[in-house]
Amino acid sequence: MPEFKIYQSTGEQELFVEQSLQQVTAAASETVSAVVTVDDQQTFQEMDGFGASFTDSAAFLIHQVLDDEQRQEVMIKLFDPQEGIGLSVLRNPMGASDYARSVYSYNDLPAGETDLELKQFSVAHDEADIIPLLQQALKLNPQVKLMASPWSAPGWMKTSGSMIGGELKPEFYQAHADYFVRYIQAYAQHGLPIYAVTPQNEPLFEPQHYPSMLMLADAQSRFIRDYLKPALVNHDIDAKILCYDHNWDRPDYPLTVLEQAEAVVDGVAWHWYGGETSAQSAVLQAFAGTEVHFTEGSGGEWIPPFEQAFSNVMRTGIEILRNHSKSLVLWNMALDENNGPTVPGFGRSTCRGIVQINQQTRELVYTLDYYALAHFSQIIRPKALRLAAEASKETIRCVAFRNTDQSLALVLFNDSEENEHVSVQLPGAAPITITMAAKSAVSVLSNPSV
Fold first, then answer.
1. Range of 414's domain?
2. Residues 78 and 192 in one domain
3. Strands (E), 182-333
4. Residue where one domain finishes, among candidates 347, 379, 411
5. Contacts of 122 by beta carbon, 8 Å cutoff, 6+ apart
6. End-of-domain residue from the set 327, 345, 379
7. Can you give the residue ranges of the Glycosyl hydrolase family 30 beta sandwich domain (predicted)?
8. Counted domains in the chain
9. Do the Cβ atoms of 230 and 189 come closer than 8 Å?
């Protein structure tokens, strides 16, 4: 039995290919150019895992556009830990996001009406495509954790009277907290436990062409502390509450929420569309014990060449984990040949899904995000503990974990423009020297006995 499993990506034509140790080991005459050392005596966060989102658009494409055989294939390749890449975290919109075929909530009413008791609440929309796929994902991988985030409260609760823009009216804070309760209860009835919620997706961004809701830090603190947490407690719901759910460039927001509501906030959720990953560690340093989660990052045409786009996911993914995140969740699980569907009036989409499903031909393509996620999720399993790992050269990016079966998982990315001969020193194993092409990724998994 081999001592290591090794997976390598060297470019668009070679993505996450399993290699033998002999195929990647440098010749004895080659000079080691970098050393990576893993210290298993120093541990950090425990992983929940890796994943993406079953938006309305993604669920429609997988559940309705693909035929039964294709659907089974893609779900296995996404979620099965042995035959696929074992994705284990799903963060779903509560109602419509920008990637939905229509604008909807779970409690839509005619203009001027209210429903404080939520008598018309229903998740029937999700029962068509989203819930069946979540149930299948959970069956394929029982370790899957479900997160939920609203892009907007129902329009009748807001100053705009619409799911587009506006803020949550204070008189409807309790109704919105009850809305979360009803959602969690409805999903539980379908065998889908909700692991964590965030009060609002991107609360500082108020676009006028898709569902959104401005929620400033003071308002979020009050909503969580005085309404959402008490509502969950009153209904014996133990879902975690993660604040913020926005970019690294405004750490002042989660710091404010934690200052005002730390006792009832479990963690902070982050996105990658602005700022630096170090913000995750800075907030954690200020509030020790607060969980760190990365809940959304999309690739797209703004980084068009393959190498740059793949490098961005690998480089940033490693840094997200090195900055204490328990999760790494990209955006749409699937998009079509036009990077959609999107809500009416959205305009041209430039985002990239984990898979692409052509609505005209039903062609199914696994994108670079699938293979980049594979470098992490295939070897770093739920409940793995991050270990200290350092490289002697800054351009060799690395992150290491110990799985519950005691196997060691190491993800490497060569961020230089040259080939590197990297000596990997794992605890309890003889050093191995791996040849890494420029901008290539290598994942190393030791046997549990090593």
1. 4-45+386-446
2. yes
3. 194-197, 240-247, 267-271, 291-296, 299-300, 325-332
4. 379
5. 106, 107, 186
6. 379
7. 384-443
8. 2
9. no
Q: Would you say the pTM of this structure is higher than 0.85?
A: yes
CB 14 within 8 A of CB 375: no
Whole-number Å distance between alpha carbons of 293 and 323: 10
Length of the chain: 450
- If asked whether residues 215 and 357 sit together in one domain, one would say yes
Q: What is the mean pLDDT of residues 224-235?
A: 98
Would you place residue 1 in the very low, low, confident or very high pLDDT band (cuts 50, 70, 90)? very low
CB 62 within 8 A of CB 75: yes
C-alpha to C-alpha distance for 430 and 206, rounded to whole angstroms: 54
Q: Which amino acid is at 378?
A: Q
Q: State how far the Cα of 444 lies from the Cα of 8, in Å rounded to an integer.
A: 9
**Same-domain check for residues 131 and 222:** yes
346-377 pLDDT per residue, tens: 999 999 999 999 999 999 999 999 999 999 99
Which CATH number goes with the domain that contains 348?
Answer: 3.20.20.80
